[in-house]
Specification:
With 183 residues, the protein is mainly α. It is built from 6 helices and no strands.
């Protein structure tokens, strides 16, 4: 009976040839890992550059809006010491370090921005009080000189501090959102 059932066409099951699976050596696994990392590493780098570009394009759009309102160049016009230019250069270097992924240098640049803002504030206050004098005659011209000294000194003090704070926040946001680092 078995022999008869085995001859029937619907009872036959095709016998697939099963090839033995080769055992992978550790070298094959390493080669596969290298291939996978080579295939997926550029996508990770592209994603980082895309996040960096989007994040900083938002900042550039805000700078363009400040320029359109005419307030972008005010810090540089009010600062007679050049501290605003130094702060801007340090911020630019910190942004390049963000792009390179050098988070230690970004942290250093952020902290240096805070200190330069404080130095600019103290420098502006020194400029303010150095032009004030009690022995000047009480005339309108001396009053104009005092007000001008206060204006120039406070402009340096406040604008350098403002630029340093904005630069620190911008670098800190880049570091936090791109690498989960604290500045």
């Amino acid at each position: 009976m078995r022999a008869t059932l085995a001859r029937l066409p619907w009872s036959r099951t095709p016998q697939a040839e099963v090839e033995p699976t080769p055992v992978a050596s550790p070298f094959d696994a390493r080669q596969q890992q290298e291939r996978l990392s080579a295939a997926f590493a550029p996508a990770g780098e592209r994603a980082f550059f895309a996040r960096f570009a989007v994040l900083n394009l938002v900042g550039v759009a805000l700078l363009a809006a400040a320029w359109a309102e005419g307030v972008l160049l005010k810090p540089y016009e009010a600062d007679s010491t050049g501290m605003c230019y130094l702060i801007t250069a340090l911020f630019g270097w910190g942004l390049v370090c963000c792009l390179r992924g050098d988070w230690q240098s970004v942290r250093w640049a952020g902290n240096a921005l805070v200190y330069l803002g404080m130095v600019g504030t103290v420098l502006g206050l020194i400029m303010t009080v150095s032009d004030l004098s009690a022995d000047k005659a009480q005339s309108f011209e001396s009053f104009k000189t005092v007000v001008t000294a206060i204006y120039v000194g406070s402009g340096t003090a406040l604008y350098t501090n403002l630029l340093a704070c904005v630069g620190y926040l911008w670098l800190g946001t880049n570091a936090h959102l791109l690498a989960r680092q604290e500045v």
